[in-house]
Amino acid sequence: MTTDPDALEAARRDRSGHAAAERPLAVVRAASIDDVRATMRIASETTTPVVTQGALTGLAGAANAGGGEIALSVADMTRILDVSPDDQLAVVEPGILNAALNEHLATHGLWWAPDPASREISTVGGNIATGAGGLLCAKYGVTRDAVLGVDVVLADGSLVRMGHRSVKGVTGLDLTSLMIGSEGTLGVIVGATLKLRRTVPGDVCTLTAMFPSVREAAAASSAVTASGVEPAIMELMDHASLSAACGVLGLDAPTSGASQLTIQTDGPAATAEAESIADILRRRASEVRVTRDRAEGEELLRIRRAMHPGMASLGTTLIEDVSVPRSRMAEMFDEIARVERDHGVRIPTVAHAGDGNLHPNFIFDGEEVPPGIWEAADDLFRAAIRLGGTLTGEHGIGVLKSRWLADELGEKQWQLQRDIKNVFDPQGLLNPGKVFAPRDELLQHP
Amino acid sequence: MTTDPDALEAARRDRSGHAAAERPLAVVRAASIDDVRATMRIASETTTPVVTQGALTGLAGAANAGGGEIALSVADMTRILDVSPDDQLAVVEPGILNAALNEHLATHGLWWAPDPASREISTVGGNIATGAGGLLCAKYGVTRDAVLGVDVVLADGSLVRMGHRSVKGVTGLDLTSLMIGSEGTLGVIVGATLKLRRTVPGDVCTLTAMFPSVREAAAASSAVTASGVEPAIMELMDHASLSAACGVLGLDAPTSGASQLTIQTDGPAATAEAESIADILRRRASEVRVTRDRAEGEELLRIRRAMHPGMASLGTTLIEDVSVPRSRMAEMFDEIARVERDHGVRIPTVAHAGDGNLHPNFIFDGEEVPPGIWEAADDLFRAAIRLGGTLTGEHGIGVLKSRWLADELGEKQWQLQRDIKNVFDPQGLLNPGKVFAPRDELLQHP
Fold it and tell me: In 3D, which of A205, A336, A208 has the Cα closest to residue A273?
């Protein structure tokens, strides 16, 4: 345990741009399940709130620890306890980085599919706690599809092992799924049994296509999905995000309005699928490039990977995370354009187009998100819900979006979820004020 | 609503062989969500227990309705409300049969992957309520992987829409997953948004291989899994089940001890995968047959499909459903042989070998399961749990296995699950005595 001011200060903030108002009481860096259990027992006895932390790469403020709270970090619990190629599973501690795990698994010809953009710096435990998505989800699933079981320390310090090592298992309620995406509100994930895949054999083909407008790029991506081919990656950049990324890479600016799709196919049918996708794109795009060379493919993806530095070059960013049915993506881009006009804000947007998950980046000046930006975000969230979508596809609710949770769930389901939280945590010690903020706090901006 | 004696009598029993001791009060055949809501409001006001029923094809007694209870059937709610090929989803009522849904989806080039052996006669709502598995799960996932959202009428008659139409969505707790496999204890599923797949293009190849013992068949199936190829179907029949199936089909009896694997590959790599599987099998098998002809493939699967009539020819059957990590399957067959010897019972066994899910069939005379059979089953369940497995892979707990639930979950998790049930159903009206039987009842045999 430490009360070092730098450690306390660091525990206040994740990568959302939001920080807790005050520093936590202490930071506990657990080295073992026993450390976590001891911490929770002390917390229960003293009714001290606990905020579980991993690598603090979250984008919703869910792991920010504040005044009167213990920051319980599992970032040092990084062991891989078991890899079974025969059963295609691994048992790991929560603090291991996603990329470090996959580097190890590659030596066994295996991989864990969840691939958030943060995978080099985010932990497996954090991926599970947020129900992380990524670029490959349309083809290879989200975190929920890749976890067989979790070991959880409850608020009272007891240890419960949920789920199975077997592929199938329906013994009672599926508490493993309930933990996935629970954002530290139900218990502390201290171990996970992960469902792995064999490394995909065959080629990787990469395509890029330029379109005269974002609406046409979105329509083309919907056409690819509707054709039945399954790209591994399908990323869309609107004109503003494409321009910013080209700017930081020193490339020529795209022509006015131009938007881009970047698509990868893999597996035994990679080449055939790339050809049929290219046919679909050529009917709509001004320029289509295709390569079977992996290095050249990485070069084509470089522009998409420059999105974050591109956004940083424009100002401070509130990165949002709406998700809509794939057929409604073009309409969602129309809504984003409307919100830009109505609120006078800039919202460069990229999308995981294969699964309808959009990241609108609200640009502003200064450190704190101004009220006008939240009003624009509110307008945008409601539009996504109207289109049959959700206000968060993969980042979670945390502290930043708890205000809108009941709008999407409805009052009855919101109360049901809160009652389940109370079953796990009757004293309200686990990540208080996150996800299920008290109703009277919801009237204020976060 | 009816109190017709035949209807009441039929509502007492599913296909497990177990029936409720008495007839229910009444059978309500709901035609709409409003009917379900009205039934639950009356039940709440009068504190009358309600047992939700579909096609009554369950194998754990979960939907059996007994004395003092209302049997609430949703079998007449069979509409397909929406099919979106672009979003690869369908919205359906719960009473539609799995096979009827897939017949309709085929006209759109789509399918819903869960394929319980009962798919011709079981409902989608029942598949969800039990978390049904099937033959294709190792490659195409279980029910949990194929449901985006559920509409649920709660005990008090209120309607809650859980989940999303979008591929991604992490808004609060994952109540959709909690409903999957909840066996009527949390609410009445009145609608579902299903995640569909495109019809798989390419060939289907079918292989059969004969082995001198079940242990060698199990080892061969583990070798296939470990090689990384993904068969769509991989079914194992031990000597006793193979002999019984051959018997009812009028085929020659297999040689002493002989056991069989039946494997299908599909998709763009079907032929290449079938060849590499054949290479693995030939190292161990006495005979391997391969065909790319679909009709001939169905002929090879005919023996496996004759399992149920084969068992019926031997006596009355208690069909069990343990699941183990795939690498432990040969050991599980050793345990089954030991249980047969120790308890003097016959347990012909088939397995979904691709995912480690075994169906041991306990054979006995008469209508009621004798205590000696339950003692043998108890021994077998404990063996499965010792091997890192579970006492139910896809049939559920129902009334028949509630006695063992706490053994697998541990006392703490059992209590946690029961407390969650109480959040949904504070009056204890939904399927009382199922899954979470009171602890003092657990000492008796079901």
Answer: A205
Q: pTM of the entire structure?
A: 0.95
Whether the CB of A141 is below 8 Å from some CB of chain B: the reply is: yes
Q: Which of A284, A117, A309 is nearest to A207 (CA)?
A: A284
Helix (H/G/I), strand (E/B), else coil: A195: strand
Residue of A nearest to B407 (CA): A171
CB contacts of A268 in chain B (<8 Å) are: 268-269, 272
SS3 letters across chain B: CECCHHHHHHCCECCCCCECCCCCCEEEECCCHHHHHHHHHHHHHHCCCEEEECCCCCCCCCCCCCCCCEEEECCCCCCEEEEECCCCEEEECCCCEHHHHHHHHHCCCEECCCCCCCCCCCEHHHHHHHCCCCCCHHHHCCHHHHEEEEEEECCCCCEEEEECCCCCCCCCCCHHHHHCCCCCCCCEEEEEEEECEECCCCCEEEEEEEECCHHHHHHHHHHHHHHCCCCCEEEEECHHHHHHHHHHHCCCCCCCCCEEEEEEEECCCHHHHHHHHHHHHHCCCCEEEEECCHHHHHHHHHHHHCHHHHHHCCCEEEECCCECCHHHHHHHHHHHHHHHHHHCCCCCEEEECCCCEEEEEEEECCCCCCHHHHHHHHHHHHHHHHCCCECCCCCCCCCCCHHHHHHHHCHHHHHHHHHHHHHHCCCCCECCCCCCCCHHHCCCCC
Closest Cα in chain B, distance from residue A94 (Å)? 20
Structure confidence by residue, pLDDT tens digits, B278-303 = 999 999 998 999 999 989 998 888 99
For testing the chain A interface, which of B37, B167, B418 should be mutated: the one with the most A CBs within 10 Å? B167
Q: How many angstroms separate the Cα of A164 from the Cα of each of A168, A195, B278, B323, B389?
A: 8, 10, 31, 9, 7
User: What value does the CA radius of gyration of chain B take, rounded to a whole number of Å?
Assistant: 22
CA distances in angstroms from A349 to A365, A373, A406, B135, listed in the order given: 18, 15, 26, 42
Cβ of A145 within 8 Å of Cβ of B142? The answer is: no
pLDDT single digits (tens) A201-221: 788 999 999 999 999 999 999
Shortest distance, CA B382 to any CA of chain A (angstroms): 14
Q: Name every residue whose Cβ is closer than 8 Å to that of residue A270 and which is 6 or more positions away in sequence.
A: A202, A203, A204, A205, A292
Fold for B80-198, please state it. 3.30.465
Confidence of residue B445 (pLDDT cuts 50, 70, 90): very low
Q: Which CATH code for domain B201-310?
A: 3.30.70.3450
Nearest CB partner across the interface for A171, out of B172, B272, B390: B390
The reply to whether residue A167 touches residue B130, judged by beta carbons under 8 angstroms, is no
pLDDT tens sequence across A261-303: 999 999 888 999 999 999 999 999 989 999 999 899 988 889 9
ipTM rounded to 2 decimals: 0.94
In chain A, domain spans: 5-73, 80-198, 201-310, 402-441
- CATH number for the region B5-73 comes to 3.30.43.10
| Residue in A174, A272, A323 closest to B168 by CB | A323
- Identify which of A428, A423, A395, A430 has the alpha carbon closest to the alpha carbon of residue A71: A430
Residue of B nearest to A88 (CA): B226
Which of A:340-359 have CB within 8 Å of B?
A: 352, 355-357
Mean pLDDT of A342-367: 95
Residue type, B278: A
Q: In the structure, what pLDDT confidence band is assigned to residue A52 with cuts at 50, 70 and 90?
A: very high
In angstroms, rounded to a whole number, what is the distance separating the alpha carbons of residues B2 and B5?
9
Chain B closest-CA separation from residue A178 CA (Å):
5
